[in-house]
Amino acid sequence: MYGVVALGYEFLSEFVPFLVVLLLFRRNRGKYSTPFSKWHYLMPMVFALYIIAVFYITNPGTLYDAMGTSWEEMKERINWLPFSEKIDPVGYLLNVVMFLPFGILVPLIWKRIRKGTCLAALGFSALIEVSQLFSRRGTDVDDLIMNTMGAAIGFAAYKIWDNVTNSRFQLEGGNSAELPAFVLAIYLGRFFLFNRMGLIHLFYGA
Question: Of 82, 124, 83, nearest to 101 (Cα)?
Fold first, then answer.
């Protein structure tokens, strides 16, 4: 029972803020904007579900995790030097695979910023790595490199597919500000609203 409730609580803490921001963007589309189709709602939702899944896998820390973590503890879990620790081929591969969808979805949904896809992936990965300090996980520059590489491979796959289909499936009319707004809405919803330990205490007592 706890697992189902925790999963639902974690999901809603992230998806509801995203949904609010999505509806605000769709409501304030501007006088001369292209009319929105169902795909202008569905594709951002697919992107949001992907981001939520990445957060579930990587477990970025929340405000409640940060309150129990000292700066001294955080410093001990940071690796600034690329490939200076034990090489983990499986871990590296998983980090690459995890960001492949990012490299495909971003240019597909936001045509105006597709050239900045890898930079956006770098920023998203950095957000994850820094926030993992709060959840007592390590922050590793290798993960940052592998994540960005995965997005770059995904973007290359998108470019091949886009050339073959001649942009027939390109979503037009997306606001480039949506990408950071959606990611931040999901992250901040999790950061401020998701209290895992509080839920555990509610179920099992202090």
Answer: 124
Percent over 90 (pLDDT), the chain: 56
Query: With b meaning 16 or more CB within 10 Å and e meaning fewer, what string describes 6-30?
Result: eeebbbebbbebbbebbeebeeeee
Structure token pair of residue 173: 């009319």
Instruction: Examine the pLDDT at 32 and tell me if it is beyond 50.
Output: no
pTM: 0.92
CA distances from 200 to 23, 67, 131, 192, 194 (A): 32, 17, 21, 17, 12
With tokens 């803490």, the residue in question is 13
Q: Where are the alpha helices (DSSP H) in 36-177?
A: 39-58, 63-66, 71-75, 89-98, 100-109, 117-131, 141-165
Question: What's the domain count of the chain?
Answer: 1
Q: Hunting for tokens 């091949």 — which residue is that?
A: 160
Q: Which residue range forms the structural domain that includes residue 177?
A: 2-204
In angstroms, the CA 49 to CA 184 distance is 14
Least confident of 60-64, 99-103, 159-163, 173-177: 173-177
